[in-house]
Design a protein that fits this description.
Radius of gyration: 27 Å
Helix content: 25-40%
Number of domains: 3
Shape: elongated
Strand content: 15-25%
CATH superfamily of the largest domain: Type I PLP-dependent aspartate aminotransferase-like (Major domain)
Structural class: alpha/beta
Number of strands: 20
Mean pLDDT: 87
């Protein structure tokens, strides 16, 4: 039987541990683990430790979860791996479909870990602009103290000197703008006011450098390696507005905060749109009925039922160009403007219509061109106070980005550049305001529940369309051998099944409130500063510390049966979602005992 002493001796001789100065293992040996059970880690001698940080934030539903185990075992009997270049398989297809439904983004591209997801998103953004004829847009912006991984590209947009400075000669320059970390607010200043003030620096940078900026990458709501720095969702809302205004991609790095960690499935969902949601909203309400019919009743009061029925029929007879244009208009916010397709406006049916901007987009195929008819239609629309932008079908298919650029210009040159927000009825929504949507989302960590390495990047149809074509070099030529591994995908599907069947997000809200109440004494401790909480993440800073605080706190917590690793002077807990209330009592008691210890 292997003892913990034997395992530690052998690991020192053979293993190079991550994020570790190996010499420290002489004084602080790693915790030897033989097995896991739920929220607990168990050493070779049978001693149990509460995994208060979910094994580097990856474990959602406990160690040796029977449902995830069963899914992987079942997949082992089918196919363990097949290359995803030139082949496909059911787990990767189903996972991609389900992630698209959850995020509102599509065409999942897979990697192995969080850093590789960041690399993929950065490369994809810069390559998009190159394909769009703007190769000069290849620079990136990130937040101060942000962390996005430690591969070369990811480290270039990371702002943690301990990780970055040594490799500075290898890295590409990027720009960091002030963090909206609420701890930095002025006395009496709200977290929201501080967040919006920080967004002014992002606006100033983009106003000057948008022509060369590809994307802004951000950890939504919580900057993990910055010591669980938490900030107000208003920053994300404003960042979305600015990225739209200056035509810069917004990359949401949800690697650490995705899958329920912040209280919603994805953190970006907590940032609401301030204006009508054109991104992904489409032009039809529930049941396929045009949401614009009632809205346009004052301008065009007499739309007969047969005209509406004819417009619906045309929606099912789209050309390739019309289908592509619809995906692009539906996918991009275009400054908050919302389009409707095949909109009835007797005596005509309009291909695409934006009520807020008074803009009509018409597509024509060369063999069907009727200049005289088009001139009559354009003149009539002009009499109604509408402007018309007309494209050939081939333009849409072959010059996609140029077409979208012209639409953008037409929208923002119109009479209504700042549309009034639609009512909830007009948006087809309930009381909750629509969330923003990033152009890219990076996922990993909790994606497989801590079982297998897997990451995914999802993006918009507009980005995907820019890579679609006959030229190989126009495609996204990024890969690794285990892309979309079936075993990892089955683990991820099991994780999504648990979220759905167990109503995990709702259960977590109840559990989070209970644990916050348990931590009241910790929050009030005289050494604690900036106690903060969001979703299933709790953190606080400790005053009156000496060098080596994090290592001493870690060792003391182990003595109390808790596995925890502070970041500098910040102590945080991010337990698995299966952690029981009685286990949270133990965790709260351990934190209080460590804070009371005079030598920590």
């Amino acid at each position: 039987m292997t003892t913990d002493h034997d395992l530690i001796r052998r690991t020192r001789a053979a293993v190079w541990h991550p994020c570790t100065q190996m010499k420290t293992l002489e004084a602080t040996p790693p915790l030897a683990i033989a097995r896991g059970e739920g929220a607990w880690l168990i050493d070779p001698g049978g001693r149990r430790y509460l995994d208060a940080i979910s094994s580097w934030w990856v474990n959602l539903f406990g160690h040796c979860n029977p449902r995830i185990n069963a899914a992987i075992v079942d997949q082992l009997g089918r196919i363990e791996h097949v290359m995803l270049a030139g082949a496909t398989h059911a787990p990767v297809v189903e996972l991609s479909e389900r992630l698209a439904a959850l995020t509102g983004l599509g065409h999942a591209f897979y990697g192995s870990d969080g850093a590789s997801a960041t690399e993929i998103a950065l490369k994809m953004s810069a390559h998009y602009w190159r394909n769009a004829g703007q190769p000069e847009k290849n620079a990136f912006v990130s937040l101060q103290n942000g962390y996005h991984g430690e591969t070369v590209g990811a480290l270039s947009v990371t702002d943690i000197p301990l990780f970055k400075d040594t490799y500075a000669p290898l890295l590409r320059h990027s720009v960091q703008v002030p963090t909206p970390d609420a701890r930095r607010a002025e006395p009496g200043e709200s977290a929201e006011a501080w967040a919006l003030r920080c967004a002014e620096a992002l606006e100033a940078h983009l106003a000057e450098h948008a022509a060369t900026t590809a994307a802004f990458i951000v950890e939504p709501l919580v900057q993990g390696a910055a010591g669980m720095a938490m900030y107000h969702p208003a920053y994300l809302t404003r960042a979305r507005e600015l990225c739209d205004q200056y035509r810069v991609h917004l990359i949401a790095d949800e690697i650490a905060v995705g899958f329920g960690r912040t209280g919603t499935m994805f953190a970006f969902e907590q940032a609401s749109l301030p204006s009508p949601p054109g991104r992904g909203a489409g032009g039809e309400g529930a049941g396929g009925k045009s949401a614009a019919v009632g809205q346009d009743a004052q301008r065009f009061p007499d739309i007969p039922p047969e005209a509406i029925e004819f417009a619906r029929k045309l929606r099912h007879e789209q050309t390739d160009a019309e289908s592509l244009m619809w995906y692009l208009l539906r996918d991009r916010r275009l400054g908050g403007h919302k389009f409707r397709r095949q909109h009835p406006m007797p005596p005509y049916t309009l291909d695409f219509y934006c009520h807020e901007a008074g803009l009509v987009i018409e597509l024509d195929g060369g063999q069907h061109a009727e200049p005289a008819r088009d001139a009559r239609r354009d003149a009539w629309l002009g009499q109604q106070g509408l402007r018309v932008v007309r494209f050939w079908n081939n333009q849409v298919l072959q010059e996609t980005e140029a077409v979208l650029s012209e639409v953008w210009t037409a929208l923002h040159a119109g009479a209504y550049p700042h549309p009034q927000p639609l009512s909830q009825r007009e948006r087809g929504e309930g009381p909750r305001q629509a969330a923003i949507r990033p152009d890219f989302i990076c996922l990993s960590k909790g994606l497989t529940g801590g079982y297998l390495p897997l990451s995914a990047v999802l993006t918009t149809d507009a980005v995907y369309a820019a890579f679609y074509g006959d030229a190989t070099a126009r495609g996204f030529l990024h890969s690794h051998s285990y892309t979309g591994n079936p075993l990892a995908c089955r683990a991820a599907l099991a994780v999504l099944d648990i979220f759905e069947s167990d109503r995990v997000i709702d259960a977590n809200r109840v559990k989070a409130q209970a644990f916050t109440d348990l931590l009241a004494d910790v929050a009030a401790h005289p050494r604690v500063r900036h106690f903060r909480h969001r979703g299933m993440i709790w953190a606080f800073d400790v005053a009156q510390t000496r060098p080596g605080f994090a290592a001493r706190f870690h060792r003391a917590a182990l003595d109390h049966g808790v596995f925890i690793r502070p970041v500098g002077q910040t102590v945080y807990v991010m337990p698995p979602y299966v952690t029981a209330i009685e286990d949270m009592h133990l965790l709260a008691e351990a934190l209080r005992a460590c804070l009371d210890h005079p030598d920590i």
